[in-house]
What does this fold into?
Amino acid sequence: MRSVGRLLATGTVVLACSQLTGCTVPIGAVTGLFVATDGSPGIVVAVCTGRIDGAVLFEDDADPETLAIAEWDHDGGVTDFATWPLAGDTDWKIDRPFPALDPTRRYSLYAATQDDTNSGTYVTFNAADLTTLQPGQVRYELAGTPQTTSEADFRSHACDSFRPRPT
It folds into this structure.
Protein backbone atom coordinates (compact mmCIF):
# COMPACT_ATOMS: atom_id res chain seq x y z
CA MET A 1 0.00 0.00 0.00
CA ARG A 2 1.22 3.46 -0.86
CA SER A 3 2.41 5.62 2.00
CA VAL A 4 0.44 8.65 3.08
CA GLY A 5 3.50 10.76 2.39
CA ARG A 6 3.52 9.83 -1.29
CA LEU A 7 -0.03 11.01 -1.99
CA LEU A 8 0.41 13.99 0.29
CA ALA A 9 3.49 14.92 -1.70
CA THR A 10 1.35 14.81 -4.84
CA GLY A 11 -1.16 17.17 -3.24
CA THR A 12 1.58 19.44 -1.99
CA VAL A 13 3.13 19.55 -5.45
CA VAL A 14 -0.26 20.36 -6.99
CA LEU A 15 -0.90 23.13 -4.48
CA ALA A 16 2.62 24.57 -4.40
CA CYS A 17 3.28 24.32 -8.11
CA SER A 18 -0.03 25.89 -9.02
CA GLN A 19 1.60 29.13 -7.87
CA LEU A 20 4.59 28.63 -10.20
CA THR A 21 4.90 28.35 -13.95
CA GLY A 22 6.04 25.10 -15.54
CA CYS A 23 5.55 22.98 -12.41
CA THR A 24 2.29 21.10 -12.07
CA VAL A 25 0.82 17.66 -11.82
CA PRO A 26 -1.74 17.66 -14.62
CA ILE A 27 -5.38 17.65 -13.62
CA GLY A 28 -6.99 14.84 -15.56
CA ALA A 29 -9.93 13.74 -13.40
CA VAL A 30 -12.93 15.10 -11.55
CA THR A 31 -13.37 13.97 -7.94
CA GLY A 32 -16.77 13.90 -6.26
CA LEU A 33 -18.87 12.41 -3.49
CA PHE A 34 -22.05 10.37 -3.71
CA VAL A 35 -24.48 8.56 -1.43
CA ALA A 36 -25.34 4.92 -2.08
CA THR A 37 -28.90 3.61 -1.93
CA ASP A 38 -28.24 2.41 1.64
CA GLY A 39 -27.30 5.97 2.64
CA SER A 40 -23.56 5.38 2.95
CA PRO A 41 -21.29 8.02 1.40
CA GLY A 42 -18.70 7.23 -1.22
CA ILE A 43 -16.18 8.65 -3.66
CA VAL A 44 -16.71 9.00 -7.39
CA VAL A 45 -14.00 9.80 -9.91
CA ALA A 46 -14.41 10.55 -13.61
CA VAL A 47 -11.01 10.06 -15.24
CA CYS A 48 -10.80 12.33 -18.27
CA THR A 49 -7.16 11.81 -19.24
CA GLY A 50 -4.54 9.40 -17.95
CA ARG A 51 -5.31 7.26 -14.94
CA ILE A 52 -5.98 7.55 -11.19
CA ASP A 53 -4.80 5.05 -8.57
CA GLY A 54 -5.45 6.76 -5.26
CA ALA A 55 -7.32 9.39 -3.30
CA VAL A 56 -6.65 11.47 -0.18
CA LEU A 57 -9.01 13.07 2.36
CA PHE A 58 -7.77 15.80 4.67
CA GLU A 59 -9.03 18.64 6.87
CA ASP A 60 -8.78 22.00 5.12
CA ASP A 61 -6.90 23.63 7.99
CA ALA A 62 -4.82 20.62 9.08
CA ASP A 63 -1.16 20.76 9.96
CA PRO A 64 0.76 19.51 6.90
CA GLU A 65 2.53 16.91 9.06
CA THR A 66 -0.78 15.27 9.93
CA LEU A 67 -2.71 16.18 6.81
CA ALA A 68 -4.26 12.90 5.69
CA ILE A 69 -7.31 11.56 7.46
CA ALA A 70 -7.70 8.68 5.03
CA GLU A 71 -6.04 7.44 1.87
CA TRP A 72 -7.28 4.95 -0.73
CA ASP A 73 -5.18 2.89 -3.11
CA HIS A 74 -6.14 0.97 -6.27
CA ASP A 75 -3.65 -1.53 -7.70
CA GLY A 76 -3.22 -0.70 -11.39
CA GLY A 77 -5.47 2.33 -11.35
CA VAL A 78 -8.52 3.22 -13.40
CA THR A 79 -8.82 5.09 -16.68
CA ASP A 80 -12.53 5.83 -16.88
CA PHE A 81 -15.05 5.95 -14.03
CA ALA A 82 -14.89 4.60 -10.50
CA THR A 83 -16.99 4.65 -7.35
CA TRP A 84 -16.22 3.21 -3.95
CA PRO A 85 -17.43 3.60 -0.36
CA LEU A 86 -15.57 5.89 2.03
CA ALA A 87 -14.84 2.75 4.06
CA GLY A 88 -12.98 1.31 1.05
CA ASP A 89 -13.61 -2.02 -0.66
CA THR A 90 -11.68 -4.87 -2.29
CA ASP A 91 -10.57 -2.67 -5.22
CA TRP A 92 -10.03 0.60 -3.33
CA LYS A 93 -8.16 -0.24 -0.15
CA ILE A 94 -8.18 2.32 2.65
CA ASP A 95 -5.08 2.78 4.79
CA ARG A 96 -6.96 2.90 8.13
CA PRO A 97 -10.53 2.59 9.39
CA PHE A 98 -12.52 5.53 8.12
CA PRO A 99 -12.99 8.00 11.00
CA ALA A 100 -16.16 9.80 11.96
CA LEU A 101 -16.27 13.24 10.36
CA ASP A 102 -16.25 16.18 12.76
CA PRO A 103 -19.39 18.24 12.02
CA THR A 104 -17.49 21.49 12.76
CA ARG A 105 -14.73 20.85 10.18
CA ARG A 106 -14.39 21.25 6.41
CA TYR A 107 -12.68 18.54 4.40
CA SER A 108 -11.03 18.27 1.00
CA LEU A 109 -10.82 15.17 -1.14
CA TYR A 110 -8.92 14.60 -4.34
CA ALA A 111 -7.87 11.70 -6.56
CA ALA A 112 -4.24 11.28 -7.68
CA THR A 113 -1.56 8.90 -8.90
CA GLN A 114 1.35 7.45 -6.99
CA ASP A 115 3.80 8.54 -9.68
CA ASP A 116 2.56 12.16 -9.85
CA THR A 117 1.46 11.86 -13.49
CA ASN A 118 -2.18 12.80 -12.88
CA SER A 119 -4.43 14.36 -10.28
CA GLY A 120 -8.09 15.01 -9.80
CA THR A 121 -9.93 18.18 -8.91
CA TYR A 122 -10.66 18.80 -5.24
CA VAL A 123 -14.09 18.60 -3.71
CA THR A 124 -14.57 20.36 -0.36
CA PHE A 125 -17.37 19.49 2.02
CA ASN A 126 -18.48 19.12 5.61
CA ALA A 127 -20.50 16.35 7.25
CA ALA A 128 -23.77 18.27 6.71
CA ASP A 129 -23.10 18.46 2.96
CA LEU A 130 -23.15 14.66 2.82
CA THR A 131 -26.57 14.54 4.51
CA THR A 132 -28.07 16.73 1.78
CA LEU A 133 -27.08 14.29 -0.98
CA GLN A 134 -29.71 11.83 -2.13
CA PRO A 135 -28.91 8.42 -3.62
CA GLY A 136 -28.00 8.93 -7.27
CA GLN A 137 -26.60 12.44 -6.73
CA VAL A 138 -22.95 13.54 -6.98
CA ARG A 139 -21.32 16.55 -5.32
CA TYR A 140 -18.23 17.92 -7.06
CA GLU A 141 -16.66 21.31 -7.72
CA LEU A 142 -16.44 23.24 -10.94
CA ALA A 143 -14.05 26.21 -10.79
CA GLY A 144 -14.23 26.09 -6.98
CA THR A 145 -18.03 26.20 -6.90
CA PRO A 146 -19.89 23.21 -5.42
CA GLN A 147 -22.19 21.44 -7.87
CA THR A 148 -24.76 18.73 -7.28
CA THR A 149 -25.97 16.65 -10.19
CA SER A 150 -27.21 13.17 -10.99
CA GLU A 151 -24.66 10.38 -11.33
CA ALA A 152 -25.75 9.95 -14.95
CA ASP A 153 -25.10 13.64 -15.68
CA PHE A 154 -21.76 13.47 -13.88
CA ARG A 155 -20.75 10.43 -15.95
CA SER A 156 -21.78 12.20 -19.16
CA HIS A 157 -20.44 15.69 -18.52
CA ALA A 158 -17.74 15.74 -15.79
CA CYS A 159 -15.01 15.63 -18.44
CA ASP A 160 -16.55 18.21 -20.79
CA SER A 161 -13.95 20.85 -19.90
CA PHE A 162 -11.16 18.36 -20.75
CA ARG A 163 -12.44 17.73 -24.28
CA PRO A 164 -11.25 19.85 -27.20
CA ARG A 165 -13.74 22.53 -28.15
CA PRO A 166 -15.10 22.40 -31.70
CA THR A 167 -13.55 24.99 -34.01
Confidence is low (pLDDT under 50) at residues 1-21. Helices lie at 4-17, 127-132, 151-157.
